Queue: 2 jobs
Job 1
Amino acid sequence: MSTLTKQDTFSSLFTAAPKNFESVRKLAEESFLAQDIPAPKAEEYKFTNIGKKLEQSIVNYSAALPIEVTIDQVKSALFEGFEGNVLVFSNGKFLPELSSSIESVEISLISAKPELALGTIAKPGKDAFTALNQATFEDGIFISVPKKTQIEKPILLLSFNQANQGQVIQPRVWIEAGDFSEVTFLDQSISLGESSYFLNKVVEVKGGINTQIRYYRLQNEGKNVIEVSNFETDIQQDARFTSVNISLSGDLVRNNLTLNLLGSNSEGNMYGIYLLNGKTHVDNHTNVDHTIPHAESNELYKGILADQSRGVFNGKIFVRQDAQKTNAFQQNNNILLSEEAIVNTKPQLEIWADDVKCSHGCTVGQLDEEALFYLQARGIDKVQAKGLLLYAFAGEVLEKIEEESFHNYCVSLIQERLGSKF
Amino acid sequence: MLSIKNLHASIDGTPILRGINLEVKAGEVHAIMGPNGSGKSTLASVLAGREEYEVTDGEVTFKGKNLLDLAPEDRAREGVFLAFQYPVEIPGVSSTNFLRTAVNQVREYRGQEPLDAVKFLTLMKEKMKLVEIDQKLLSRSLNEGFSGGEKKRNEIFQMAMLEPSLSILDETDSGLDIDALRIVSNGVNQLKSDQNATIVVTHYQRLLDYIVPDYVHVLYKGRIVKSGTKELALELEEKGYDWIKEEVDSAATV
Ligand SMILES: Nc1ncnc2c1ncn2[C@@H]1O[C@H](COP(=O)(O)OP(=O)(O)O)[C@@H](O)[C@H]1O
Ligand SMILES: [Mg+2]
């Protein structure tokens, strides 16, 4: 079997790429060519053989065109209790006519911002898929929150995706938040249809000093979707950034999440749940880079895996030599509900400073049979008892979602799943 | 109410219960005593339906039904209640939610209307008094960080909420100070009626000063080797278990 190479697999994307951001794209293309699609044993993709997955059925990928989305579809896609601003996307393309205009927030197409420093936060050299996106993305969205502004209602990025096997959807998002601003993003996509397209998303967030940014993402793609997302943010002095990522479905999902703590007294939080069944494979690679003293990072990812699903967790924490007085905490806990489910979990700490507080831990276990029996012995049905225990396990992450309606929505989705399938 | 005939059970192939016979009628209190490791908790667990134990022989009927055929939750709904020797801590599951789910599932099985939040709280308040349990404990996760005594009290509180017809109390007294013992026993005694029965498992006689048994059985090496009235318990307190062990062991070698 031949290994995939850039020449054949994505050549149509390069040919069809828009001509704007010429130098940015050119550098990204070179970077992609240098990195190539990760080879089967590539260290960063050791447990997630994305090359094989992409190659399985497809020889030559092309870009998916936007599909038509109606206002009714948008309305019915909004979760119960949602109150806020909606930005609608179709296969990655922003649809302003279906979107809210948000008071005091600037929203524009990336193509209308030719000066934008794309790729300066999520650098193409770090990951081949970031490079691929940057070299060939159609267009994307630019969102800017002015300084000292509090956006009270959340901004929902609602994506409708529908493409065929062999097509690529490449969302690109650039978010800026001025000093002292505060904003919450909700990110949700709706897969229309069951086909196996490739979603390759890049999000860059540029936060100012003393910002409060929350980014909550619900990954509930179609069960055949192959997805890579690269999310990176710079966190400045006195700022706090929190990510909560909930993965419920997909064929193969790889999330690269990177927080760069660049200013003192900054805080970066990464929380996640993966609740998987069937053959779903979800890989969360997280990085937090402590570059300065007096910053804090907290991380908690929890996995519940049934059937033949697979979870991968890799948590890198860098504490650079200057980053004295760092506090960095990391936990990854997993419950396997079947003998065929697999978890690969690896903390990766590189600490160059000496005066730091770091802790990490990972566990992989089964459902607590003692606890299950205890609940049953009180008259609670076995399925429901399992659901209660698993929900209790996941709840520790869910409670990190500070947006109440979204929290409730995620709770209901997860309870529904735990009350039936598992 | 409960009839156990020639019950054998093993774990991982090792026989633990080796022919238990016991009849319990409504209104009765039975004490099961015996040295550590004799199989008391195993008997209690088998009755409650713990799956690790394999019943290899014998039968158990409860109110005319084959108990061994029922899932643990259905045994509970039929009216069997086990107060655990070691109640499990379950972080993240709130005591109140748990109890409400349990009470309503039991009620549903018994053909009763579910309790709404208000009625449930009223019932809870009433039963809390019975074992003098603090509201604060119940706002925490189930048994999480509870002291030994608080856990035992919580077991009896749950018993009060679920209104079982057969309660099996597995070493509910061990580790309790006298005050707590009095409170717990008082709770148990108040719940007693001629409609329900209690099996008290203990290796100390002390508890039986508070919960007075109609019958006392001694379990040793997986069998009931002696039965009597509450005087037997006093005799055991005075003389220990050795004479019984000797009696049984010498009989076995003859
Ligand atoms: N889960 C288990 N695995 C293996 N052996 C067990 C298990 N539970 C109980 N036993 C054994 O069964 C015997 C009876 O135990 P148990 O019923 O707990 O006694 P008691 O409650 O009378 O102290 C002991 O020898 C104990 O070691
Ligand atoms: Mg015992």
Job 2
Amino acid sequence: MSLKYTIAPFSAWLQAVSKPFTVPVTGGPRPGAPRYRGWHINDVEKCIGCGTCSAICQNEAIDMVPVDDPVVGDSGLRPKIDYGRCCWCALCVDVCPSGSLGMSNEYVWADTDADVFRYIPGVDEKPWDDSELGWRREEGFELVDHDRVPMGMLDPDERTQTWAEVVIGYTEEQARVEASRCVDCGLCVAACPAHMHIPDYIGAIRDGDDARAVQIIYDNNAMPEMCGKVCTRRCESVCSIGVQGDPLAIRWLKRYATERFDNLAEVLQPQVERVGEGRTVAVIGGGPSGLTVAYYLAIRGFEVTVHEALPQVGGATFFGIPRYRFPMSSLEKQVDLLKSAGVKFVLNHRVDGDELTRMLAENDAVFMGVGLMKPMALRAPGEDLPGVIPALDMLREQNLGHEVDVGEKVVVVGGGNVAIDASRISRRLGAEVTIAYRRRVVDMPADDEEIEDAEAEGVEIVTQAIPLRVEATEDGKLDFVWGPAEMVQEEEGKRPRPKLIEGVENHLVVDRVIVAIGQGPDLDWLPTEISEKICNKWGYIEVDETGMTAVEGLYAGGDLVNDTADAISAIADGLRAVNGIVDKTRAQHV
Amino acid sequence: MTEQTALERRVQLWFGPQHPGITGNMAVQAWLEGDTLTSGVTHVGYLHRGFEKLMERRKFIQSFPIVCRICVPEPDTNEWLLAASIEELSGLDKEVPEKARWIRTLFLEMSRLSSMLMVLGGHVGAMGLGTAPNWLITLRDYILDRFEELTGARVYHMYVTYGGVRRDLPEGFAERLEANLQEIESKLPLVDNVIFDSAVFRKRAIGVGVVPEEWVDELGLTGPIVRAMGIARDTRTDYPYEKYGELDIEPMTTTGSDIFARAWMRRLEIAQSIDLIRQILAKMPTEGPYSAKLPNMLTWTIPAGETYVRAEASRGEMGYYVVTDGSDKIRRVHVRGPSYVHGVTLLERLMPGTNIADLSALMVSLQVCPPEIER
Amino acid sequence: MKSFEEILDFAIDNEQKAHDLYMDIAEMATRPGMRQTFLEFAAQEMQHRERLEAIKAGKLPELDQARVETLGLSEHLVDVPVEKDMDYQSALLFAMKAEQRAYDLYAGLAKATDDPNLVTLFEGLAQEELKHKLHFEREYDDVVLGDN
Ligand SMILES: Cc1cc2nc3c(=O)[nH]c(=O)nc-3n(C[C@H](O)[C@H](O)[C@H](O)COP(=O)(O)OP(=O)(O)OC[C@H]3O[C@@H](n4cnc5c(N)ncnc54)[C@H](O)[C@@H]3O)c2cc1C
Ligand code: SF4
Ligand code: SF4
């Protein structure tokens, strides 16, 4: 072997006087790279406690622990990380729907107590809490699907020519894809007044088991096809995917599942204890709350009769909500199920005070869900002119199939669902429509999508417009006079209120002024002995946690009890009364 | 005094599992006559993980933190193989953006480079020479610095995902990587002096651990072991994946098929890797997305199917055979690591006649990675 | 009307009259819940009266002179007569208008006098009435005009 090979290795000695290979580090540990995956940090104000981080962690290193009382849209839980398990993969960070979870670039931490290596980032203070560097969620890399499957709708021009349903509905394929976006966090369940088992039925739709989905839906909603079409969807407003993307189309998925089946009785076949055998219950008012009570009591063996003043049950969903949103066939399908469950209906029958007293004596329970039937009046001069009409009356006439004439030009006063419905109906009746609303579009209680739909159909919205008076013009029209408003923010946490700017008057000459500023209870028919006990100062009815009023055996629910006044709240009230009545019956069995 | 029988002269010796000369969590049970092995049996079972089984219980995305553990010095081939197989079965492969494909090629080549720097040091470390391994581990650390800023971690990167990679290249990454490459190139002659020009290494490596050519197809040998016999086989050129088909690349070969040839093979491939990384950086687009839009990873299901995907790791051909059943989990995955054939079948054949002092060097030259055997 | 005391007595008497009126309406109210509403209004007037009495007795600081910004809600709405079947909307409207009239009264008195001390007192009382009006306006805005 050549001498070279004996000598060459000694060249290594040169390193003693050369620049070393290693990089000298002074002054503590070298900081981690800007996107280093070090100890977790969490912006606990932003975190919604959805637990998605915990769900994706394949090491089960994350426990969701209570730190606060849960509020709607926030479970009150926060992730606690166990570093005996964590492998610093940061999947938790990348999946976090709120973007609150991150990792600092700190990686050095020593302690003799092993238990300290389990902490709640953002709650248990750590030196790296304010670390600017480290791994963060990055837009453009999502482990969840932010994009909702778009819903097919009729073309706006086409819509005003027809009474057909505007929303087309998901196909099976679309529904499966949309359902697969759910991360099963369950925040929606808490937000839903009826606490529907949303992730469960969405999961069933995703897995292709629509029958199962409908069964789960009917656990606590007897009018789901209606809710699937018109629900105010509080659930969607808290959907964790909605924080950074589009919330799940929970309403449309419910609609999809229920529309899959024509004969619901075949699919459902509920297995519940028939505790109510031999007992009778009278329901006054066939709105969502009353029908809920009727269905869930009927399947439990109660003999239920629903008394309804109108020729059809459904309440405001029948006489208020227009058919292009909730067609008659959908309503009938749901009513058919009630009939098959044995519910009896007495239609065209308005219950009065004497009858109520009689009903209380003759039945085991009476449920009242008579809704808000009295439109609020403008109380502006000129309101009694012919041509100034309450929106509720106009919608009822339309839905009862009577001829409604709104002329060529209308102004609708108000910004709730009723106002939007009245304007879209007026568009379909051929009128030019302006909405005059006292506040801003963001303040409108109407559903955002409804507002958009109305605008797409050609409804013009004038905001911050305060009605001053209505005058008759010489050519038989109405001059709607309004003044502009400024928004004043007086109280912390409340929506700003409009205040009239004096001295300016605007005129809108129309054929009809449709008033849709709100509605209140109409309970004048109640016997005084009863109303004194059950009504509060606003004229609404008060109930306890079992849904019962201060009158023994008299239950109530729906718009005249709750302050949210939407269909799902009415259903929730109905469920509360069902539980109250069932529990009481059970107690009597013992 | 009676003569000792051959059997009585035989000594049984456990080499590992706790022996610094063993390459990872395994053991060799050796029988010696004098200091020469008459036979040896390999033992695994010290890992207690069951990677393949774990993956059957996890959603697709949750397997990334698992697969990287299959090889410490070179986890990235595993990440890529998992991504590529599931992408193929789900159809997501059509949506992987161009830039992501380039980043993945870069990432895989960086991984090969860092792994080869480490194992080259191991070659002489196994003979008790400490200088070169210390230097080479440092050179590898330069690459780990780049991995750290690219992926957020030095060793287990968890960077490739379905549909692309998890983050874009950081600002100025290419320049810093180039500086590292130059640093490495400037040090390699020093390394050569203490390895290939060292009498100790040459004496103990040349003609030792020779693998006969006939065994290649019989046992399914791949990688530097076969290229060190002069056979030009390389998955990157034979079955090009990601952007390897668009690079100027020829399989490297040398001859001798002994420990020295295999070490030299790695030295050649280090240079090749550096060249490839430069080519990639030059050709890579700077604009565009680094990931496809992903479906919800918590509920993702993919159609039933099966596939085998392969890649050239620094040790040889690595492959994943994956079966899916239409659910949200892998039905079965088989990890085909080169170490099974190299570290069990081949090693057991080579052991008879090997001097006990050379066993370590032999194992390093076969680049045995036990988690690949015990999946 | 000259002395500080006399003026406060006058104001106290006004609150008492308002209280009595609401008590009378409560007595005859037929609509569900409305009896309660008017009793509550009456109780509020009683509180106002007690507040003025405390001021008179020197137990409370002088009246707040800060200008109250109302919403100007009732000015353009029609007058409501006192009826037994008044509903909540009418009740609020009636109350808003009553507070506005009381304000007008004190504001007018403030203009009609030269004594700076009395001007301050009348203006303070006027603002006090506006505060009450604002209270009813907010309720009207929330409950009656919820959809508008
Ligand atoms: C135009 C309009 C649009 C709406 N849009 C939506 C929407 O998009 N989404 C949503 O969630 N909610 C909507 N709502 C609200 C929703 O319809 C109601 O919250 C819900 O119907 C209330 O249900 P309820 O059980 O309280 O009774 P209601 O639906 O109000 O029904 C009460 C029923 O009782 C009957 N009745 C009253 N008095 C008597 C009596 N003495 N004897 C016998 N029967 C009597 C009435 O005829 C009526 O049928 C809308 C309401 C209206 C008016
Ligand atoms: S995923 Fe994010 S928002 Fe949800 S609980 Fe975890 S840290 Fe909070
Ligand atoms: S970094 Fe990975 S292992 Fe650690 S808590 Fe997050 S998901 Fe779990």
